[in-house]
């Protein structure tokens, strides 16, 4: 909806290399230009992103944590980005994975909304809440931006069943805490195993981890044949990496067993 409201031919969006694939799609769909800023250590290079903003830039997309790299920008570094960006550039901080952050990395971006009228925060029920199939999420922003997004929003874009589930999910703190805890344990397990297997990985703050492996496409197919689906990342400019989602303890072990088999072949 942000792309729908603010992008058009002659305008541009800034985002990082290896950033979530929906940003280029949304930008292209509006006929706008993408300004892709080289990543730093696989993460967003905020200084370079600020420098890349041109007069025709209307949107900056920042995923924090990012998919598929799992990289994270501390709140203190991100906070003044909207102030330093031009007022007519809407800064979207996509917080789809924010609920997975360990307590010491949490930051209060909602408080920033009072200071920055060009800031949009996006959240989803697809991740820690486990409601991906219901297609429901929300955004937080200045009422002026919300008014513009309402003009491009389809009426009744979220169904009543999804809304009821979302409200219930927001109140289910126990489930969210359990999901986040299980995820952190799973991440630690996978990262430990990658170290043992001597596979390079990108330390992750999300619910997946991206690792480097030679012949990534072949390994992906060998995993697939053993019933394990991981994500090849060639279209993210990372042809030598695969991304695996954290599962239940049993699923994590199944993946690791399948991976060892795939690497031994
Ligand atoms: C960075 C990021 N933002 C947003 C989403 C949106 O998820 P959904 O459309 O299911 O709400 C995803 C899902 O993969 C994501 O990785």
Give structural notes.
- With 265 residues, the protein is of the alpha/beta class.
- It has 2 domains: 2-170, Type I PLP-dependent aspartate aminotransferase-like (Major domain) (Aspartate Aminotransferase, domain 2, 3-Layer(aba) Sandwich), CATH 3.40.640.10; 174-264, Alpha-Beta Complex (Aspartate Aminotransferase, domain 1), CATH 3.90.1150.
- It is built from 11 helices and 10 strands.
- It has helices at residues 2-6, 22-29, 46-52, 75-78, 81-84, 109-112, 143-152, 160-171, 173-196, 216-225, 249-264; strands at residues 12-16, 33-37, 57-63, 90-94, 119-124, 137-141, 201-202, 208-212, 231-232, 241-245.
- Helix 6 links the parallel strand 4 (90-94) and strand 5.
- Helix 10 packs across helix 11 (249-264).
**Which consecutive residue ranges, at least 5 long each, have pLDDT under 50?**
none
Give the termini distance in whole angstroms: 46 Å
Query: What is the level-2 CATH architecture name of the largest domain?
Result: 3-Layer(aba) Sandwich
How much of the polypeptide forms β-strand, as a percent range?
A: 15-25%
Radius of gyration in whole Å, from Cα? Answer: 19 Å
| Integer average pLDDT | 97
The counted number of beta strands is: 10
Oligomerization category of the chains in this entry: single chain
Categorize the overall geometry: globular
Query: How many strands, which pairing sense, and closed or not: the largest β-sheet?
Result: 6 strands, mixed
Helix content: 25-40%
* CATH H-level superfamily title of the largest domain: Type I PLP-dependent aspartate aminotransferase-like (Major domain)
CATH C-level of the largest domain? Alpha Beta
Overall number of domains: 2
Strand arrangement within the widest β-sheet reads 2-1-3-4-5-6
- According to CATH, what is the topology of the largest domain? Aspartate Aminotransferase, domain 2
Number of continuous helical runs: 11
The helix-and-strand class reads alpha/beta
The molecules bound to the chains, other than polymers, are: pyridoxal-5'-phosphate
Which series of helices and strands comes N to C? HEHEHEHHEHEEHHHEEHEEH
């Amino acid at each position: 909806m942000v792309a729908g409201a603010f992008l058009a031919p002659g305008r541009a969006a800034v985002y990082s290399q290896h950033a979530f694939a929906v940003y280029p799609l949304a930008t292209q769909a509006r006929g706008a230009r993408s300004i892709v800023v080289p990543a730093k250590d696989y993460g967003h290079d905020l200084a370079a992103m600020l420098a890349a903003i041109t007069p025709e830039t209307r949107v900056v997309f920042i995923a924090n944590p990012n998919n598929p790299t799992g990289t994270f920008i501390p709140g203190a570094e991100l906070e003044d980005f909207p102030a330093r960006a031009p007022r007519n550039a809407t800064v979207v901080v996509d917080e789809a994975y924010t609920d997975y952050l360990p307590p010491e990395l949490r930051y209060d971006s909602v408080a920033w909304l009072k200071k920055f009228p060009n800031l949009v925060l996006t959240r989803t029920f697809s991740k820690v809440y486990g409601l991906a199939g219901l297609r429901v999420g929300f955004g937080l922003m200045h009422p002026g931006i919300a008014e513009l997004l309402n003009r491009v929003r389809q009426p009744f874009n979220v169904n009543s069943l999804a809304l009821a589930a979302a409200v219930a999910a927001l109140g289910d703190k126990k489930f969210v805490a359990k999901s986040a805890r299980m995820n952190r344990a799973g991440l630690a397990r996978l990262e430990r195993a990658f170290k043992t297997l001597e596979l390079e990985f990108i330390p992750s703050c999300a619910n997946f981890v991206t690792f480097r492996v030679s012949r990534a496409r072949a390994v992906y197919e060998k995993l697939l044949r053993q019933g394990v689906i991981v994500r090849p990342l060639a279209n993210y400019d990372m042809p030598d990496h695969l991304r695996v989602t954290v599962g239940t303890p049993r699923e994590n072990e199944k993946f690791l067993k399948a991976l060892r088999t795939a690497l031994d072949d």
